[in-house]
Automatic annotation (TrEMBL):
<dbReference type="InterPro" id="IPR017853">
    <property type="entry name" value="GH"/>
</dbReference>
<protein>
    <submittedName>
        <fullName>N-acetylmuramoyl-L-alanine amidase</fullName>
    </submittedName>
</protein>
<dbReference type="InterPro" id="IPR002053">
    <property type="entry name" value="Glyco_hydro_25"/>
</dbReference>
<comment type="similarity">
    <text>Belongs to the glycosyl hydrolase 25 family.</text>
</comment>
<dbReference type="Pfam" id="PF01183">
    <property type="entry name" value="Glyco_hydro_25"/>
</dbReference>
């Protein structure tokens, strides 16, 4: 499994001929509220289309109430619909001075507006924001996407909340992209094919040609658990046979970061 990235104009000009060889899914920002249009969103969408990279879109919202939320939802949908993205994500991680009730009502109205359009909808919200701003009370979206960066907390745990996508670093690397890029891994029961609408020909769970190789991978994971570089849930996932190739690739990056 390749990488799942989210990008904006902060990544500059992406060489999609190179990035496409590593990326299985791209989530492209179209705007920040309605006042700031992402300068690279069209270029990034065209790059994904040209090199057959599945993509969805997201908006970093700035609303303070339901009325503003609906205005931003409409603007977001109208801007993106012509490109036929696989899904739409509302990114809610700042209050901009609004109270909790207004943020929840605005987020719910945003999600409902998009769902009424018959599209797949995701909610992205900060790990620190989820409970204080009652994002756990928002309903009707199709998947939850939560960031929790490895190395920024002593435990280095996965998100405390059940979610479908985990944004685990803002310091990832992808060939064809200059500088850092956010990387994500699947974290729930939804497989990559659910996001891309493509049938996966093969099971992505890890397979081994001999016991020695399997033992070596398990020993590597156990050693890092023993050193408290990663949580023991990773070892449990390996032993249960549900760890995917993508999981392990992400885990190796986490281990490398924490071993520095």
């Amino acid at each position: 499994m390749g990488k799942i990235i989210d990008i904006s104009h902060h990544q500059g000009d992406i060489d999609w001929s190179k990035a496409s060889k590593e990326v299985d899914l791209a989530i492209i920002r179209t705007q920040y509220g309605t006042s700031t249009i992402d300068r690279k969103y069209v270029q990034n969408i065209e790059g994904c289309k040209k090199y057959n990279v599945p993509f969805g879109v997201y908006i970093y919202v700035t609303f303070k109430n339901k009325t503003e939320a609906l205005a931003q939802a409409k603007d977001f949908y109208e801007r993106a619909k012509g490109y036929n993205p696989l899904f739409y994500v509302v990114d809610v991680e700042e209050s901009f001075g609004a109270n909790v009730q207004n943020i929840v009502q605005g987020t719910q109205a945003f999600v409902d507006y998009l769902k009424d359009k018959g599209v797949k909808v995701g909610l992205y919200t900060g790990h620190h924001f989820y409970k204080p701003y009652k994002m756990d009370t928002v309903k009707n979206y199709d998947f939850l996407w939560v960031p929790r960066y490895s190395g920024t907390s002593a435990q280095g745990l996965k998100p405390n909340y059940a979610c479908d996508l985990w944004q685990y670093t803002e310091s990832g690397a992808v060939t064809g992209i200059k500088g850092n890029v956010d990387l994500n891994v699947l974290n729930g029961s939804k497989r990559l094919s659910w996001f891309t609408n493509k049938n996966e020909k093969d099971d992505d769970t890890m397979k081994f040609s001999n016991e020695t190789t399997e033992a070596a991978v398990r020993d590597h994971i156990k050693q890092t658990v023993d050193k408290k570089l990663i949580d023991k849930s990773w070892l449990e996932k390996f032993d249960s046979g549900t760890m995917t190739v993508g999981d392990y690739e992400g885990l190796k990056l986490i281990i490398a970061q924490r071993s520095k």
